[in-house]
Design brief:
By secondary structure, the protein is of the alpha+beta class. It is 47% helix and 11% strand. It is built from seven helices and four strands. The longest helix is centred in the C-terminal third of the chain and has 17 residues, at 148-164. The radius of gyration is 18 Å and the shape is elongated. The N and C termini lie far apart (37 Å). The chain binds FE2/S2 (inorganic) cluster (FES).
Length: 165
């Protein structure tokens, strides 16, 4: 938690979640899910507020926030790029796809979000469409049977669409 910055957020949104789901310890998960849906991640200030306004202790709230893989503790890019590293994708070149993505995004080792906050890259185990391997998913859209070249083209297309908007 030490790397987390204090986020500038409107705490009335957090209060609305608490009002909707209640103040018992059990309400922590739906409240955190609601916060993540609103912000794309769990702002530190929001978690603090939840511990102050509900019966859940800081340990319980941070325990839930860090235990479940779907919760994010850092701001994410506008697009979430999921790179499959499941067995089928791994066998068909997921590592090369991942390397190309990092290169295209300008991400160095350990970084997952582009400096312009356009993309966050996540590694996932299986996207459930192994026959299309290797596969990535950009937001809700699946791209399969990828090559390094196809990956470059996909993100050139995204960049063009950004310019046109
Ligand atoms: S292993 Fe990649 S989609 Fe299943």
């Amino acid at each position: 938690m030490s790397e987390q910055t204090v986020d500038d957020i409107d705490l009335s949104v957090v209060d609305q979640m608490i009002e909707r789901y209640g103040t018992t310890t059990d309400a922590a998960i739906p409240i955190l899910l609601g916060l993540q849906e609103t912000y794309g991640y769990l702002p530190f200030k929001a978690l603090q507020h939840v511990t102050e306004k509900t019966e859940a202790t800081p340990n319980q709230v941070y325990g839930v926030a860090t235990f479940y893989g779907q919760f994010r503790m850092k701001p994410v890019g506008r697009h979430i790029v999921r790179v499959c590293h499941g067995t089928a994708c791994h066998v068909r070149g997921a590592v090369g796809i991942d390397e190309t993505l990092m290169e295209v995004m300008g991400l160095a080792g350990g970084e997952d979000t582009t400096a312009d906050m356009e993309y966050t890259v996540e590694k996932v185990a299986c996207l459930g469409c192994c026959s299309l391997s290797p596969v990535i998913m950009v937001d809700d859209k699946v791209y399969g049977k990828l090559t390094r070249q196809k990956v470059r083209k996909i993100f050139q297309q995204y960049a063009r669409e950004e310019v046109e908007q």
